[in-house]
Amino acid sequence: MIGATGTIGRATVRALLRHGHEVVCFVRPKAAKDPAMKDPAAKDRAADDSTRRFLGATVRTGEVTDPTSLARDGLRGEHFDALVSCLASRTGTPKDAWAIDHQAQRHALNAVKAAGATHAVLLSAICVQKPLLAFQHAKLAFEKELMASGLTWSIVRATAFFKSLSGQIDRVKKGKPFLVFGDGTLTACKPISDDDLGDFIAGCLNEPMRHHRILPIGGPGEAITPQQQGEALFQMLGQPPRFKRVPVALLDVIVAVLSTFGRVEPKLAEKAELARIGRYYATESMLVWDAAAGRYDAAATPSHGTQTLLDHYRGLLSGAVKNERGEHAVF
Ligand SMILES: NC(=O)c1ccc[n+]([C@@H]2O[C@H](COP(=O)([O-])OP(=O)(O)OC[C@H]3O[C@@H](n4cnc5c(N)ncnc54)[C@H](OP(=O)(O)O)[C@@H]3O)[C@@H](O)[C@H]2O)c1
Known about the structure:
There is one protein chain. The protein is an alpha/beta fold. It has helices at about 5-20, 30, 65-75, 95-115, 135-145, 170-175, 195-205, 225-235, 250-260, 265-285, 310-320; strands at about 25, 55, 55-60, 80-85, 120-125, 150-160, 180, 215, 245, 290, 295. A 4-stranded parallel sheet has the order 4-5-6-8, sandwiched between helices. A 3-stranded mixed sheet has the order 1-3-2. A two-stranded parallel ribbon has the order 7-9. Helix 1 packs across helix 7 (about 195-205), helix 3 (about 65-75) crosses helix 4 and helix 8 (about 225-235) packs parallel to helix 11. The longest helix has 21 residues, at about 95-115. The chain is globular, with a radius of gyration of 20 Å. The relative contact order is 0.14. NADP nicotinamide-adenine-dinucleotide phosphate (NAP) binds near residues 7, 64, 125 and 331.
């Protein structure tokens, strides 16, 4: 498993173990030092990585960007049945996206093939169906290589995660308005919880209907717009709804200015790409795209699981749950 320390990676490790698989997580050395990597049940920190445990799985450390490290430190000449990847660039910048979402995935695929694996499950994103951003092109390029790899493959194109839709809870609790782009109904999504998505990804290994398939997947229930998310939140807090409506044209100006200055200053070019990512999510739904009809189709977007975004909001408000956003999460 690669990408095991991410939001969905952690949920997928838990699900793989629940499904009865033996799991080896290949993580970077810095991640292995994270206290969250320690199994609360394991009091002794062993010096040898191979005996380290993460949520009950074996942890090995090395560089996923380096084929030698993958073979030497990760696979160690042993046989593996499958690769499960929740790896993803943490920044979304073009350089990082091509290095991680494409090149590192490709190294991992080649390494597990050499170790005897016959199946690979990839967590991708539903937004690659309408690719406008560098990270989407990088993901698509690897999807293509995986499909041509000769292995049994499953590509999970997930809709929006709960963490990406929960960022405004604190500001609303402080009495600030809920921010929406346009009238708040420009986009919709069928959010899926970390554990429901982890369960779906783990299920790809044993469920033949999910083999050799691109699998768009959302959570249970109807699609929800940002306006509806805000209204639900105010209702739960017992406050009258207050929205601040941001025109999309403002994002266009920011993208244009950063792109212009980005031609001479690489740091601003990266910021321009992040602004383009923001604009994309402000205007594109995370639902199956019906190219013939030229619209997003909530009914055609499959659902999995039982946990809803509104349950998650209730849990966050009561303190019963926390978002696993990670250190550098941008999405
Ligand atoms: N957010 C959404 O709403 C949404 C919706 C649909 C699909 N998606 C897609 O879902 C995927 C996973 O998302 P997530 O939120 O679970 O990701 P995440 O929390 O950012 O986790 C990324 C994982 O990749 C690893 N990684 C990143 N850069 C690395 C590097 N240079 N070397 C080694 N490992 C590296 C991270 O390891 P470290 O812990 O060591 O950094 C971590 O395990 C992404 O492809 C995203 O595009 C997201």
